[in-house]
Design brief:
- This protein is of the alpha/beta class and 191 residues long.
- The chain has a single domain (6-186), classed as Metal-dependent hydrolases (TIM Barrel, Alpha-Beta Barrel), CATH 3.20.20.140.
- The chain has 6 helices and 8 strands.
- It has helices spanning 26-34, 57-68, 90-107, 119-126, 152-160, 175-178, and strands at residues 6-9, 17-22, 43-48, 74-83, 111-116, 143-145, 164-167, 184-186.
- Strands 1-2-3-4-5-6-7-8 form an 8-stranded parallel beta sheet.
- Helix 2 runs parallel beside helix 3.
- The longest helix has 18 residues, at 90-107.
- It is globular, with a radius of gyration of 16 Å.
- The model has no long low-confidence stretch (mean pLDDT 95).
- It binds zinc ion.
- The site of zinc ion (ZN) has 5 residues, from loops.
């Protein structure tokens, strides 16, 4: 279980948050942390967002993850994932998502996942990278579907497939009942 009250935001300096940062901006966040008192330092995830892929973004992502993998403020990979409504070609989205999953596996970091429509594809791609649940039922490295707005049926399917779920301000009212507390997260995202 990640000890953050806001596991995904794009807005810096929110208390208890993980800031989602594109690879090209990680250096700025790390440098800023170096000049702040420890209780004001920003935890972050490195994103490879399906909306913003361009030539070279996968290589840059890999390089930056390697560079900072031992930074204690680098706590997750993402957001990354698949989006059935965006204009990025699906082959490029798949290539990027796989790269993100491989990096997360190699540095044993949780994954924050963006998914629009392509649920069975996300489940199938992520499965080979998931480590078995521990004896206490806790996923050793949570795979978190962020900004979940769908209903209980899909939530149960995702839980059975090993995912955790993160809710923003707008979500189905039954989800907090359906999802066990140790698999449930909250986020502010762009709000
Ligand atoms: Zn986001």
């Amino acid at each position: 279980m990640l000890p953050f009250s806001d596991i995904h935001t794009h807005i810096p300096d929110r208390p208890g948050s993980i800031l989602s940062v594109p690879a090209e901006r990680v250096g700025v966040v790390v440098a800023a942390n170096g000049s702040r008192p420890s209780d004001e330092q920003q935890y972050y995830s490195i994103e490879l967002h399906p909306w913003h892929l361009h030539e070279g973004s996968i290589a840059q992502f890999r390089m930056v993850v390697e560079q900072y993998r031992d930074d204690p403020h680098f706590v997750a990979i993402g957001e990354c994932g698949l989006d059935g409504l965006c204009t990025t070609p699906i082959h490029l989205q798949l290539e990027a998502f796989r790269a993100a999953l491989r990096s997360a596996h190699s540095c044993r970091k949780p994954v924050i996942i963006h998914c629009v429509r392509l649920w069975s594809e996300v489940i199938a791609e992520a499965r080979p990278f998931m480590r078995p649940t521990q004896a206490d039922g806790e996923p050793p490295q949570p795979f978190i579907i962020h900004g979940f707005r769908k209903g209980p049926q899909l939530a149960r399917q995702l839980l059975n497939a090993g995912f955790s779920i993160s809710l923003g301000a707008h979500h189905h009212p039954e989800i907090p009942v359906v999802v066990p507390a140790h698999r449930l997260y909250h986020e502010t995202d762009e709000e």
